[in-house]
Amino acid sequence: MLSTIRDKLLNVTKTVPLFSSNSDKGCVQCEVNLNAGSEILTHFQNEWEVLHNTNEDNAKKAAAAAATIAKITHKIDRDKQSLSVMTHLLTNSNLKLNIANCTKQIERLYGSFHEVEEGLLHLEDLIDNIQFENMKKEHRYHLKQYKLRKDESLKAVEASLKAKHENRLAEHELKKKKELEERRQVFDEAFKNDVESFKISGTIPKLDLPKKQPSALLEEIQIDYDENELDQFFEDTTAQ
To answer: What is the pLDDT, as a whole number, of residue 177?
Structure first.
């Protein structure tokens, strides 16, 4: 606006001469200072520009504040509506009774949870006892199997020892029988010789035994013989 006024003043001074007078010597035009008051105009122009920019910033801030106020108003209206609905629901509903019922249900659930916890602890004890009994049965089974294996091994060792003992006993009996048979043959020969000597000389000759061998009487010697053979022997001797 000020710049427009300034331009108009400059145009007027150019077209209309100021401070002119008529004289005999003719019309003399006076010079005019066109820059007079430019600093004042520039000062007001700058001030006006600052005011204009400030007004624009204020307008933008006012618009932003208005938008914020509108949002806050909308939120307050919505909260107020929600509060009204909540108040209506709380006023017309049995909230206190429902809370009391919920509290009772929570107490019952707590009691149920306590019973379930005790049942789980009892179940864990039962499981531990069952596992212990199963472990005992398993150890008894393994012990029984071990005993059976040891019994079988003992029986096998016993049978082996018995077989060896029987073999040794049979060998010993066979050896003893063989020795007795040899002794019987020796005594039979000696008896026959003694009988022959008795028939001839009427006396029984004494046996020449080694010094280290202890002497024994004929009566003390037990001889295994067959009575039928002895009777047959005497009959043959008498017949001769």
So the answer is: 85
